Amino acid sequence: MFTSFFKRTEEHSFEVLIKNEREKLYKIAYSYVKNEQDALDIVQDAIIKGYKSFHKLKEKKYFSTWITRIVINSAIDHIRKSKNVIYLDQEWLTPERSHENQSIISMDMEQVFDQLKPEQKTLLLLRFYSGYSIPEIAHMLEKPEGTIKSQLHRALTKVKEKLENGGETYGSNGTEY
Predict the structure, then answer these.
(1) Which one of 40, 64, 87 terminates a domain?
(2) Please, which contacts does 108-111 make with residues 24 or more away whose CB atoms are closer than 8 Å?
(3) Host domain of residue 152
(4) Do the domain assignments include residue 177?
(5) Are residues 147 and 66 in the same domain?
(6) Do residues 116 and 39 share a domain?
(7) Are residues 27 and 104 in the same domain?
């Protein structure tokens, strides 16, 4: 009886839950600030905030989305305070192309990602980098699913427009073969 009680309690302890999420949280924070120390500071700040309000989380099954949201908010707060440039993590896009093409695509993606609003970056990261579903993102951001879908569509449309014909940097000056 005591063994199963302690196992159940241990499975849902903050420490155990955060250990399962720490790598993902770091990657999300890093994708916002592109700086290891800043990303670590953001994750640390988010963990402290999460620990202080862990008792308010009613359903532990939502821990991942809950703590992810705290990291995103902490990253956005950090950016607002420091006014740092936001860069796209190079690992975010891994096309199976030659090294040269991958470099060009990465530069274009980084440039386009820098031009997006923080809310658009958040949606794209949650959906395509972290793999959350539309309903999970809606729950995390406390917005209706329809709003998430339309905002995600607008963000993707903006990215597509910027990347059409090889992107702003290479599209107009590119040569035809």
Answers:
(1) 87
(2) 108/162, 108/163, 108/166, 108/167, 108/168, 108/169, 108/170, 109/163, 111/162, 111/167, 111/168, 111/169
(3) 91-172
(4) no
(5) no
(6) no
(7) no
Q: Could you give the residue ranges of the DSSP H alpha helices within the chain?
A: 2-11, 14-33, 36-53, 63-82, 99-115, 118-124, 134-141, 145-163, 167-171
Q: Is 65 exposed, middle or buried (0-12, 13-18, 19+ CB in 10 A)?
A: middle
Helices 145-163, 99-115: axis angle to 10 degrees equals 130
What would the pLDDT profile of 74-103 be if each residue is shown by its tens digit? Answer: 988 888 777 644 444 545 445 544 454 445
31-51 residue pLDDT tens: 888 889 999 999 999 999 999
Threshold 0.70, pTM exceeds:
no
What's the Cα-to-Cα distance from 136 to each of 96, 152, 156, rounded to whole Å? Answer: 29, 13, 19
Q: How many domains does the chain have?
A: 2
Tokens of residue 122, six digits:
């958040």
Q: Which two tokens stand for residue 52?
A: 């202080």
Same domain, 78 and 151: no
Structure tokens at 18: 């955060």
| Domain-ending residue, one of 38, 56, 87 | 87
Rounded Cα distance, 44 and 49, in Å? 9
